[in-house]
Queue: 4 jobs
Job 1
Amino acid sequence: AIKFRNLSRDTQNSYTAAWKYLMPLKDIPIKNIRTGQLQKIIDTATYRPQSKKSEKPKPERRCSRSTLEKIKALSVMLWDYAMQNDVVEKNYAKFLSLPKSQHRTEKEHFTSIEVAKIKAAADAHTAPWADCVYMMIKSGFRISEFLMLDRFSVDLERQTFRAGLKTEAGFDRIVPIHPSCVSFVRRRLAQGGERMVCKSDGSAMTPNYFRKYCYYPTLEAIGVRALNP
C-alpha cells in the first residue's frame, strides 16, 4: 500500500504481475529464502502470448528483460522491507543476475488497410467497439490511458484530450482528437457513463476486462490481427 501510493496504474499492474512469478515461494518464510531460489524464478520465468479464439494456444515464451527487471525490483523491495523490520539481515535479491539485453525487434503495426477496415466497421456499427479501437490508433493512447478518459478529459471545442499515465512527464499531456474521431467521441460521451468508454450500465471498465471482452473480440470479428493499439 505504501509503495503503490505514488505509482501510476500501469506500474502498479506491472508489479502485481511480477508478484505472481514469486508465488512458488509463498509458503517459505522470507528468512529461509536464498538467492538461488530467487534466481531459479528469474531463469525459468515464461508467459503465454494472447491467442485468438480460433487459434491453438500459442506456446510459452521466455519473459522479456523488462519483466525480469520488475521481478528483481519487486524482490529487492520486499527484502528491504524485511530488513527494515529486522526479519532478515541481508538482501539476497540484490545478487540476482539478469540475462543480457536483446536487440529490440521492430513492433508490428496495423497496416493502412487494417485501419481502414476498423474505421469502416466503426462507421457502419458492425462491431460495437470498433470506434474505440480506431480512436486509440489515432490518439496513441494505451488501453489503460484510454479507459481513464471522462467528460472532464475531453475538450470538443479545441478537439483535444487531456490525459496520460505511464510517466510523470506523461500526466496531463494534451493529445489532439483526430477529426475523423470527433463523432465517435461525441457518441460515447452522450451515453453519460462514469467514463467516456464504459459498460452498458455506465460503470468503468478495467483494462483486462476491455482486452478480453471488447478489444480482441472486435479485432477478430473485423478480421484484423490482434496487435496492440
Job 2
Amino acid sequence: MKPSTRRFWKDFFALLMPFWRSKEKWPAIGLLIAVLALTFGSVFLSVQFNFWRNRFYNALQQYDLHAFWREIMVFAGLAVVWVISGVYRVYLNQWLQIRWRRWMTDHLIGEWLQDQAYYRQQLTGAPTDNPDQRISSDIQLFISSTLSLGIGFLGNFANLFSFLAILWGLSAPLAIPLFGNTIVIPHFMVWAAVAYAVVGTLLTHWIGRPLIGLNFQQQKREADFRFGLVRFRENTEAVALYGGEASEKQGLQSLFTNVMDNWYALMRRQKLLGFLTSSYGQASILFPFILAAPQYFAKSFELG
C-alpha cells in the first residue's frame, strides 16, 4: 500500500472513530442499523418489483385480464411499502447526520479552543487554512459523503448479487464458432453485463478522478474568498481611515479569480464525464435487449 494511501486511511479513521466511541454511539448505532435495514429492504423490494414485471408483462402477452388486475393490486401494495421505506430511510439518515455533525462540531471546536490552539496554530510553519470554515462546512461534507458512500456501497453490493442470481437463472450458454471449433460461454448474459459495468466503471474513474482534487481546491478557494470578505468587514474602519479600498478590491478580486479558474476546470472535467455517463446511459437502454434477443426470439422465455 502506498504511503499516501496509508495516510489517507489513517486520517479517515482518525476522523471517523471518535464519534462511534463516544457516549452518543448507541443511539447512532440504532439509527445506522435502521437505515441499513431499510436499505436492504429496498433491495428486497427491487427484487419483488422485478418478479412483478415478469408476471405483469406475461399477463399482457397472454391477454389475461384477471391476472392483469391482480398484478395492479400487487403493485399498489409494493408501491406503498416502497414509498414509506424510502421516506424513512432518508429521514433517519438525516437524523443520524445531524447528531453526528453536532457531536463532531462540539468536539472539534473544543479541540480548537483548548490551550489556545487557535492562536498557536498560526505560529507553526504550515498552519491549517480556514479552520473556522472547515468546521462549518467540511464536517458536513465528510459526514454526508461517508454515510452516502458507505450505505450506498452496501446497498449496491446487495443489489449486485440479488440481480446477478436472477440473471444467472435466465442466461443460456452462448456458442461461438471459431476456427472450426465452438467455444461455449456459460451464462453469457451474466458475463456480458459484468464486462459492460466494469468497462463503464473504469472509464468513469479515469475521466472523473481529477474531480476529487478539483472539488477539494474549490472548497479551499471558496473558503479563502469568504474569509477575505469577513476580514474586510471586520477591518472596515481601518480601510476607511487609510483609504485602502483599491487595495482591498484588488485582493478580493484576486481571491475570486482563483475561485473562477478552478470552477472553469471543474466545468471542463464534468463536461467530459457527462459525455461519457450520458452516452453509456443511453447505450444501457438497448444493451439488455440486444443480449436477451437471441433467447427471446428462440422462445426460450416470455416477454416478462
Job 3
Amino acid sequence: GRPQLVDRSPNVEARLAQLDYMRRLWFEICSLPLQQRRALLLNLNATLGGDLAVFAYLGVANVRQIGEILEMDPVVFAELWKELPLTDARIAQEFAMTTQAVSNRRSSARERVARRMRAFERENQKNMRRG
C-alpha cells in the first residue's frame, strides 16, 4: 500500500489559541512603560523564543505599529529594524541610557509580562474546563 500522509500541523483550535496568546502578549508588552518596551522589544531574539518579526508575521502588529509603540520616528525605526536584535550597548546609545539601565528595564519587563501571561493562561484553562 501507499504510505499515508500525516498532517503534523497544529489543528485549527491550537493555531487560534497560539494567535490569541500572541495577541495577549502584545497587549501586555504595550502596557509596559516606554523604556521597558524598548529594552525588551529591540533585543528580542530567537534564543528567547522568537524575534520581533513574529508579531508582524502573525498579523498581531505590523512594523509601523511596532515603531509607534516604541515611540520612534518611522524612518529611524525602519533603519534599526535591519539591525535587530540590538545589543544592550546599542539600545543604550540610541536612547541615552546606560547599558545596565537597559538590562534592568528588560529584566523588569520580562518579569511583569511573564507574571501576567501566567495569569492569562490560568484564566484560559479555567474557562476551558467550564467550556
Job 4
Amino acid sequence: MHKPPLSFWQIWNMSFGFLGIQFGFALQNANVSRIFETLGADIANIPILWIAAPATGLLVQPVVGYLSDRTWGRLGRRRPYFLIGAILASSALLIMPHSPVLWMAAGMLWVLDASINISMEPFRALVADLLPSDQRTLGFAVQSFFIGIGAVVASALPWLFTHVLGVPNTAPAGEIPPSVIYSFTVGAGAFFGAVVWTVVRTKEYPPDNLDSFLAERKATGGFVRGVREVLNDLRQMPKTMARLAIVQFFSWFALFAMWIYTTAAVTSHIFGTTDPTSVAYNEGADWVGVLFAAYNGFAAVVAFLLPLLAKRTSRKTVHMFSLFAGGLGLASFAFVGDPLWLLASMAGVGLAWASILSMPYAILAGALPSSKMGVYMGIFNFFIVIPQIFAAGILGFFMRTLLGGHAINALVLGGASMVIAGIMVILVPDADDPNVRPDEPASSRG
C-alpha cells in the first residue's frame, strides 16, 4: 500500500515508547554487574551470569516478530506486544534490586531482558510499517534520540540520587545500595508510562485486505509451523542482511564487553579498588553510570545529524566512521588516569551507538519484503544476541588467561572488535540508498 508521509510529531509519538524501553536497558547495563558483584559474583564469572540477556533475545524477538506480523485487533498489530512487554518489564525492574541472593538476581535479569525484547522488536517493525522509504532513516533516528535521552537519565539515576538527593550509595555486604533500588523503581514507572503513550497516541494501518489477512493467518498459524517459517526465512535472507550480520557481530561483541566490564574496569583501574562495600568502589560505580549517561547523551545529540550526513555521503560511510570512533574511544580507557577524561572517550562510543541504533536498520529495511518485516526484524536480532552469547561464553576464559584478570583489557578488546566492524561495513550492499550505486536489486537473495 502507499504510505503517506507522517508529520514529525506523529513520528515522535510512535517512537516515544523507546524512551521507556531504554530506561530498562540502561538500568540493566549500568547496574547489573554492580548488583552481581555486590551479591558475591567473581569477576571471571560475570559474563556467564549475563548470558540470560542475549539468550532470551535470541528466542523471543523472532517469535514476537512472527506473531506480530499475524496479529490484528483493537490495539492493532504491534501495540499489543508493546503493552505486554511493558507490564512484565516494569514488574521485573521493581523486583530485581531486592534480590537477596545471586541466583535470584540472575533469574530476574532473564525475565527483564525477555520482557524488554517483547516490547522492543515490534517498535523496529512499526517504523517500517508506517513510514515511506524516504522517512525511515528519520524514523530510526528519532528512536535513537529517545534511546539516548532515556539512557542519559536512567544511567545517571544512582549518581543523582546520591549527589543531589543525598540517598546512600553504600550498604552492608550482600545488600543493594538504596540509590540503586530507588533508580529501578523510577525506571519501572518511566518504562510503563512511555510505552502507554505510544500505544494511545499511535494509529496503525490495517492490512490491505483484512479478510484475506485473517484467512491467511488462520491457514499459516501454529507454533511449529511458525518456527519452520522463521528458519526458512533465515536461510533465504537478503544479501544485505547477511553482510550486515558480520558488522553486527563485531559491533555487539564490543558493546557487550563494555556493558559487563566497565564497572570492574573503572573501579579497579581508575578508582583503585575491587571491594564492593568500599566508598571508592561505589563512587566509581556511580561514575560508570555518569559515563553511560554521557555516551547515550552524545548519541541523542548526534542522532538527528546522522541522517543529514548520510544524505550528503551515504549510510555506509556514516556507519563505518562512527564505528571507528567508537572503537578508538573504548580502547582509550586503558590510557586514561583521570575519570573526567573518560567523558571524551565516551563521545566516540556515543557516536558509534547512535549509528548502531539507526543505520543498520535503515539499510536493512529497504532490502526486506513488507509482508515479512516483523519476522525479519526479529531474525536480525540473532546477529545482535549471538555475539553477546559468544562473548558471555568466551570472555570469562579470556579474563583468566589472555587478559590477565584485568577488566580494562576487556575494553581494549572490545575497541578492537568495533574497529573491525567498521571495516566490514565496506562489504554491505545498500540498494535502497540513493547515494550509493546498487550492488544488487532489493529483492535479490544470497
